[in-house]
Amino acid sequence: MSEANGLNPSRRAFLRGGALLMAFTLMPVARRALADTEVDTLGTVVLAPDLPGSLRTNPYLDAWIRIGADGITVYTGKVELGTGVKTALLQIAAERLQVPASAINLLTADTALTPNEGYTAGSHSIFDSGTALYNAAAQVREMLVDAAARSWQIDAAQLSTRDGIIEGPNGERMAYADAVKHVDVHQYAKAQSPAMAAADFKLIGHNLPRLDIPAKVSGGAAFVQDMRLPGMLHARVIRPPRPGCTLQAFDAASIEALNGVVKVIRDGNYLAVVAGDEWQAIKAMRAGMESAKWSGGEAIPEAAGIHDLLKQLPSKRYPISNNGNPGGATETRFKARVTKQYLMHGSIGPSCAVAWFNDGVLTVWTHTQGVYPLRAGIAEMLRLPPDRVRCIHTEGSGCYGHNGADDAAADAALIAMRLPGTPVRVQWMREQENLWEPYSSAMVTEVDAGLSQGRLQDWNYELWTTPHNERIVNAGRLLPARLLAKPFTSAPSVPIAQPEGDGDRNAVPLYELGATRINMNFVTTMPFRTSAMRSLGAHINIFAIEAGIDELAIKAGLDPLALRLAHLSDPRARAVIERVRDEIGWPHKSSEPGAGIGFAFARYKNIMGYCALAVKLRVHPQTGEIRVDHVVTAVDVGQIVSPDGLRNQVEGGIVQSTSWTLYEKVAYDAGGIRSYDWSGYPILRFTQLPKKVDVHLLDQPGEPFLGAAEIVQGPMAAALGNAVSNATGRRWLNLPLTRSTQPA
Amino acid sequence: MSQITLTVNGAAQVLELEADMPLLYALRNHLNLNGAKYGCGLGQCGACTVIVDDQPVFACLTPCAGLEGKKIRTVESLGSAEKPGPLQAAFIDKQAAQCGYCIAGMLMRAQALLERDPHPDEQTIREHMAGNLCRCGTHLRIIEAIKQVAGHNGSRT
Question: ipTM value of the model?
Fold first, then answer.
């Protein structure tokens, strides 16, 4: 892939000459030149570019592993978002330390304790932190064995380890906790780690039951929502009806007089109430909403014209891929516009945080994806030195990207600072989550592609999007900070560069093409705050690409799946496609009216996990209702760490993408957002679930970890679209795939 | 404030509550029970589902004042992390959770079905569970866990 150079110097990837992420291996070879991911948005500095995974940014071994009389502690800067990654990281560390998983205490992101690994996002956790632990744990174990060897004056090659004990050939035994006394773990990791054959793995590639599930099925204190600190008060926020409103009147005294109310906070347009009991806080919030009189507010467009509007708004054009010569006329062309609406993350539990300002230090328990960036944002907002703020990740409801987590943490911080010594818990109400979480951007893309003599020729693709990465790079990215009397302003929006991509994630087809002209128009002037949601632009880009391949094949009388294979040489890409082809019995033609089959493929970001997927469904001839009968997928994410964890992520991705693709759009008009609750933003329910889902895992023992959590979102959307076309003979290109969003 | 006696997980609890307080907040903040979760406050998501007598109920919508004399059960009544009850054990066995925020509500809705109909077929399970939302997409595993307790063997779909 070649890229136009220098057209937009703010995009660092271009300055690096469009260097693609180099493949790395689990063992010796370092991964280089990775920046501009959604992970290291802030605060991570590459100190050791030759080291693997997050050792690049946190090269000291004792940042990851500490062994003492109290046992083995393993640290990760990543967090558990409900994907099972904590258990998977534990498997990796235990495997390479050669101890039972139960011998390790694994701590996740905490600014006082763990490495700064930026954000837990972008399917990067196993890729970054897993790779770091894979290497760090093996190096620490080797150091311990060497120490025992020196102590016993025996060649280290004669020693073995079992369950945290080093054993010599003559019955010598030394516990790791004793060996570590002769070792300085505070040193840079080496580029080379001891090799281990995948066949010898006892934990990696095997299922370890998730650590967190027993508490979650039995009412244990599993979430930040469940925290109860001594003397803790409950707070609720009162938001304006829409962004940009000014508070004209508010009778704080009448709210303060309500039962149980401890404090009413007014700072510019920022309002909050604090009470001893949560229900009292909610009632005070409701009274406050009645009392507050607002004026002004940002204009909100009519939903019907949103895609035309996106094309008219000022934008910055980023060339993404400009390759080859378009050549002459082609036999078959596909020219179409594809659209997507604003989507919500839609966490089942509204965002929550607990904060406590005690002895000059503000501690915030938060379900943020990035404790270090959040700490920097909160410190700036409160004008505190960062070392006076500690952010501790505590699980919340699944977020699937940048939802209200950081903003709720900022709320708790602001409120707790006004109640020194008292812990404060704040949780958003459902309508606050729905109205104020950053959405996934509405997008429009235009495809113009040609096929001649069975070969894909020119591929022209233009997309318009608002930002997908409004992460916390300054205080102004925190919503509450914008409402204060002295408001903070959000930092300018910058898209994530290729190869990771932003709205342009997966905009470049992996297929071998004659020529590409691919551009992103990055729109930053919109009334809706948009940010990262699982797979970013890949959802619509893969949908558009796979619709185009399908249409070109059908018009030319070719089999769509065979056309894909004819333009892919990567054996792993071919393997997942061929597996799905064989499992579902492609080609397949149902005689049942309204029945259809669709196929899609993508490699996430063109550098991570592979996913091929086929869907069988039925479209009701009168109502247009879509029932998904069967989904078959094959995935390759490199060396699998937890087969069941991977399967769970893939199944979940299939179901969630089905919901996005068939049902979801944020409803709004000039009067404001209308998707206040689940009646205004319906998502998939049990009765709409695919009837049958088959997941095939193509393991690659010893190959690099590629990440799993987001690989399915695009292919599932695309296969649904292709199956609807197969079923109805009509190509629906407006998401969601409801009849009312398609041309008459 | 009113004195209200709630019978929760078999024990009578005398509580000083505001009479309009929904059951959810009494359970979470006055009885320190984490299972029922706040999700929407509108009876649309089911994260707060508990069993009252033998019916699944949205705790976020049900005022405490009307619940005296009724038997309230939360997920804590089914077992503990150390000694999970059969349905909890099935959820662990099937690893039927991702983030898990919805799961306690799922368990209680499913429990109510299994007490009424110990061997529901899959279609009945899907329809019965439709009142509860999951955003992670764990539905397929939740169904598998319920089917395990309902005595389905692996071949039945």
Answer: 0.97
